[in-house]
Amino acid sequence: MFLSRFASILFFAMLAAGFLGQADVAAAKEKAADNYKLFCVQCHGTKGTGRGINAPALSVQPRNHTSAKDMGSLTDESVAKAIKEGGIAVAKSTQMPPFGGVLTDEEIADLVKHLRGMCKCEGKK
Ligand code: HEC
Q1: Domain boundaries in the chain?
Q2: Residue 119: CB within 6 Å of ligand 1?
Q3: pLDDT tens, position by position, 63-105
């Protein structure tokens, strides 16, 4: 009796943890989409194609995040580094600004996943 009650409590606790885990993943995805809209679209565009409102004023054109060819040639590590430390850290244009001051490493990792969804591609290994 006691054991079965304990087992069912354990079962529901595990079930709840599973749901919470999924909610975390969904929340992280939503947050990444929000961060993209907040910090990236002005250059990379609302569709991520690199045609944001600032793009015409830039001497180097922002990366097309929907291009599997362009994004697939970059490792996840270098994408995260470009976001955190700016284009200069990956020997690219300084017109790609660093976001390490406003985004946490976790938020940047979630943004990298968001970008992988946009290009429908995997990072170079
Ligand atoms: C002020 C304009 C601007 C903003 C804002 C901006 N970018 Fe960029 N980004 C650029 C430019 C320009 C490049 C192209 C750099 C190059 O090719 O030399 C670039 C390149 C990149 C690259 C490719 C780096 C590489 O190694 O080729 C990634 C990934 C990227 N941006 C992600 C982001 C993300 C994510 C955000 C928002 C958090 C963001 N950018 C915000 C201008 C911007």
Answers
A1: 28-119
A2: no
A3: 999 999 999 999 999 999 999 999 999 999 999 999 999 999 9
Using CA of residue 69, residue 72, residue 73, residue 79, what is the dihedral sign? positive
pLDDT in tens, 3-38: 788 888 878 887 888 877 888 889 999 999 999 999
- Tell me if 93 CB under 6 Å of ligand 1: yes
CATH topology for 28-119 is: Cytochrome Bc1 Complex; Chain D, domain 2 (1.10.760)
The number of the ligand 1 atom at minimal distance from the alpha carbon of 92 is: 18
If you measure from the C-alpha of residue 1 to the centroid of ligand 1, how many angstroms do you get, rounded to a whole number? Answer: 61
Predicted local confidence at residue 2, as pLDDT: 67
What distance in angstroms lies between residue 26's CA and the mean position of ligand 1's atoms?
Answer: 25
Whether residue 93 contacts residue 50, with contact meaning beta carbons closer than 8 Å, is answered with no
